[in-house]
Amino acid sequence: MTQETSSLESDAERPDAPSSEERRLPALRDAANPASARPRRRVWPWVAALVLIVAGAAGLVLQPWSRAPVPVVVEPVELAPATRVLAVNGRIAARHSVDIRALVGGTLRDLPVAEGDLVERGQMLAMTDPASQQAILRQAVAGLDAALVAEARARDALARAEALGANIARTEREAAERALLTAAQDVARATAQVDQAQVQLENHTLHAPMEGTVLALNVEPGQTIDPSTILMTIADLDRLIVETDVDEAYATQIREGQTAVLQLAGEAETQAGRVSFVSQRVDADTGGLAVELTFDAPVRAPVGLTVTTNIVVDRQEAAITAPRAAIDNDAVFVVVDGIARRRPVTVIDWPAARLIVTGGLEPGDMLIIDAAGLSDGQAVRVAVP
Length: 385
What we know:
- The protein is of the alpha+beta class.
- Helices cover 28% and strands 35% of the residues.
- The protein has five helices and 22 strands.
- The strands form six sheets. The protein has a six-stranded antiparallel barrel with strand order 3-12-15-14-13-16.
- A hairpin with a 5-residue loop joins β14 (271-282) and β15.
- The chain is rod-shaped, with a radius of gyration of 54 Å.
């Protein structure tokens, strides 16, 4: 007891000794001061997060960025000359050309022309070996000679019968008449055989049916040919045309007499021309309509050369046009007091960068060139190009 008392007294006398309150057990100390037992929570991160969420929601609702005018490029709507042009590719062709075919089969013996030669009408172009046909002709001529001799004998027999008069029987005279008639028929038959053999012999020689140029030569001497063989092609190169096909979607827009601008491949200059022929039948396989164009002035060009063809379908002195990019679902956007307004329009659909507007726009309207992403009523500002 004495030692414990002195120990307590000595602790009380030390200045840094804990007070009696501090010397309590931890459980009792925490029970006496509950606030000091819980850790202090940090509230400000949650407040900041809440502020950000509220600001984001307000931004989505209010969309302050959408209030800023969108820059757009515009063009004033004006009346001006407008032309509808249909651009297609064609090829040079000769107005008159013909494929020369063999009339009879055989071995090609003579070929006195070459590709690129000018030929006259009636000039010999080729000849097949006529030996066999010449033999047939000689045989036919011999048959005709025999028929002529028989006819002469029958005529003499009838003459003798007529000279005897009543001295011979009537039946003998009629027999002589029938014999002469038969002989005459044999002569006619033999004559036809000779003519046929002569025609066949002439068919072994081919002549030019027209004046022109040999465009293509497909055979060589010594080659065996038949009537299906195309020996060569002759064309009149003094009258060249352009052959092309027009899509059936524009078939009703093409008419004879329409003007055209023609540009030959490899040339910078253009040639004036016009539509000279429009087929009345659309090809069911290709959906194309055959069209021919002529040059206003003669040109020299190889057959088959590509020609860029611009057919003038329509020309208006005063019309409203709009870029194709400005038209979306038959409507455009115009600027009215800083607001984009959607305007329905009617146009002539045509394969061109600019379309003719027939309704919905008036001169002086400010047309937005590219309306992608715009909405009716949206604020816009005209951008300087």
